[in-house]
Amino acid sequence: MSAYAELKARKETIYRLEHLQSIVTWDRMVNMPPGSAKARAAAQGEFEALVQRMQTDPALDDLLAKAEDETLASADAANLVLMRRERLTASAVPEDLLRRRTNAIGAASQAWAKARSANDWDMFAEALAPLLACVRERAERLGDALELSPYDALLDEFDRGLTLEQVKALFAPVTDWLPGLIDSAIAKQANEQIIEPQGPFPIEAQRQVGIAVMTLLGFDFEVGRLDVSAHPFTGGTSEDVRITTRYREDEFFQSLLGIIHETGHARYQAGLPPIWRGQPLGVACSMSMHEGQSLSFEKQLALSPTFASTLSPLLAETFGPQPAFDPANLFKLMTRVRRGKIRVDADEVTYPAHVLLRSEIEPALIAGEIRVGDIPAWWDERMGRLLDVDTRGDFAGGPLQDIHWSQGMFGYFPSYLIGAMIAAQLNAAYRAATPDHEARETSGDFSGYPVWLDRNIWSAGAQHTTGELVVRATGKPLSADALKAHFERRYL
Amino acid sequence: MSAYAELKARKETIYRLEHLQSIVTWDRMVNMPPGSAKARAAAQGEFEALVQRMQTDPALDDLLAKAEDETLASADAANLVLMRRERLTASAVPEDLLRRRTNAIGAASQAWAKARSANDWDMFAEALAPLLACVRERAERLGDALELSPYDALLDEFDRGLTLEQVKALFAPVTDWLPGLIDSAIAKQANEQIIEPQGPFPIEAQRQVGIAVMTLLGFDFEVGRLDVSAHPFTGGTSEDVRITTRYREDEFFQSLLGIIHETGHARYQAGLPPIWRGQPLGVACSMSMHEGQSLSFEKQLALSPTFASTLSPLLAETFGPQPAFDPANLFKLMTRVRRGKIRVDADEVTYPAHVLLRSEIEPALIAGEIRVGDIPAWWDERMGRLLDVDTRGDFAGGPLQDIHWSQGMFGYFPSYLIGAMIAAQLNAAYRAATPDHEARETSGDFSGYPVWLDRNIWSAGAQHTTGELVVRATGKPLSADALKAHFERRYL
Prior knowledge:
The structure is a homodimer.
Chain A: H1 3-30, H2 37-55, H3 59-67, H4 74-92, H5 95-118, H6 121-146, H7 150-158, H8 164-189, H9 203-216, E1 224-228, E2 234-237, E3 240-245, H10 253-271, H11 287-302, H12 305-319, H13 327-334, H14 351-366, H15 375-387, H16 414-433, H17 437-442, H18 448-456, H19 466-474, H20 481-491
Parallel strand pairs in A: 1-3
Antiparallel strand pairs in A: 2-3
Helix pairs in contact in A: 1-2, 1-3, 3-4, 4-6, 5-6, 6-7, 8-14, 8-20, 9-10, 9-12, 10-11, 11-16, 12-13, 14-15, 14-16, 16-20
């Protein structure tokens, strides 16, 4: 066996083993009885350590060096480059630092949950500061290995090759046009008549609607499931992809749109190239691209008049007819623009503001330009400027609302807005290439866009960076232009 | 670290890792979408190979030898003896033979499913013969390592130290008294008036009854679950024990009694000694003892007038009142004796006949005294003699009804009847030691027997063999006497 073949085989073994970890993690969120948490944590920790040992086996260095002398097809050579990168980053961070970071995350998680209930920023800040120190130290080590600045090294983890400079260039125009666009959209909707749906909406009926919509969007229940968990997510594996939602009886949109969002993630996951399964080339291009797929489904496809027309009879059939299910009314309900403090509750127009402010705070924190104690003031200033919302003194509705930082997760927030840009730009390219798309959607056929995404995005795996893949798929470099055009078309 | 401590730590690691395998296996039976079977099999196979390598690590030989020179507490010494036994059996069978056996099982499983539908014995026999050859070869190797006859080596896998001689001694009296006892029981019931319950019984309501009964029997939902699968089983781990059932709307007894049966297995599993978790001493004493616990719950506890009295209002409340739910009628319904061809449908009185005949065929097959082709004739003769049932020509209702042999599982059948004997003998000892047991059960308190089982059986783990543990718990050697007394008391 060549050294490269041996490396590939080792990756495949790890992929198979991680299948178990994926299912067990899903089980933990969906099924696990509460008293079993300790034994489960021990089991999953043991497994993680085992896989970690396989991933950091010193024999890999020799195999990589030998493989780099072998003659390889170009895709294999690209796969090998990614293997080398994984090795670089895996060996860049000493175990002691990882352990300290894990402990700091444990403390920050606990503090975050308590601080959020108590609306007490200082309580969280005290636990975040030592975690941030670990995050910064780790970012420096990764940056040294990859020849990147510390924050760029963090961005790189979620979106290979992405830099703060690129993020700034992408986000700067949005910062300019967003506040005005929000004003105009809200003004335009001010006098709209909207009929509110009347609940209750029984959970089993909601589940049936969810399954019908997933089926419409091409989710394959032969290799996937829909379940319930406290926090919706897409889990499992490409061969058994499992999405979750949560229901409340008085409202169905949140769950339904959440299901559509996760269906986008799930179809991307299931659509990754099977011949590269388990290899670095076979994974998703980036988290931005992942978000680009979920938002393609949720915002581009579902928040449309044609989708509202398709949804209308389904809702009437399932819940019984009511005036709120009129297609035009459904579309209005799904596209209401409202200023608010909470990111996850935001509509698509105000959402970018929430990302912009976090994306300014994060690099400043990592660069040491501001400290944890400065976050609330930065937050309040930007929420006022970008969104005209007053968050002073409301930490739970401010910087304590997200779980990310308490998990040591810095560098992820930009992907939410980059994902929205990607979704808008991909959808515009799809529409331009598919003159009959509206006619097909009007007749209830929403398969065109997923097929286009499969061909242009999913099947490429991680062959290209986000930027390269967007150019290949749309003919243009990634920018906020399509998102702006999308907002103007839908809201102005 | 001492060599023994190292051996213990290795066992604990494997135990933790197998937690994942247990949950994933449960998931496969309960949740897995059908199209994911291939990827799942690859993942679980990879994991099994990994654990197999850990269990057969050549370094174990050295560690065992060193540990055997260390000074150990007596329980640890007993644990070490069991480790040595595991090592002996694990290294007794060459990998090539295991592979051949796995392939033969694959072929026999497929043939079995087809042959059963087609009622075609020869179709199955053709696939069973090569599998039997592998089973016999493996039994010989195991027997050589353990200084046992081949069939005793197979018995030993499910019940350490059990021999064919012991099985024969235990079963011979039953063969004598059973046919007459069945006659008498059926004759006594011949003129009974029984009211049949009127369905349908909605599945969600059945589930609620199941959960109420599990709670009554001390099942801890903080560390366990009830779900649905095609074939009911007890899975998961001691810290997260999961039972399954299947429902049909026209009938509720089968599911309910199945739930009670699995609750017995589950409580044993959850009640094993935590300080020996993952060690050879910490597992169940034997499969007979496991069956002894499930039958303690299902037959000894649940098929009683006091349990019927407790069940009666619960059923009336859940399904609405009906005459069939009268306690005396419920007891009659649960204890009807009827001759039949199918083991898993048999009542407790005719059930032993099904085991007796299989327990005569198996050792003859392994010893080479009969061939696969002889099975139907042996079957028909014994079903006629023991149960007065004619199975000639009905292979699906005869030797094709059980899955066991198609899985290469020989030596397991005796544990079903030994389990019934154990259950009767344990329950008799409990009753003798607990004068107020009937008063407590009449008041709806069924906790006494499980507490007694926990103290006398579950907490002992695998410290003793089945025979030793029965003597310790009941003061008498295991025999069929208590089972006979139980049948006479309940049915004559």
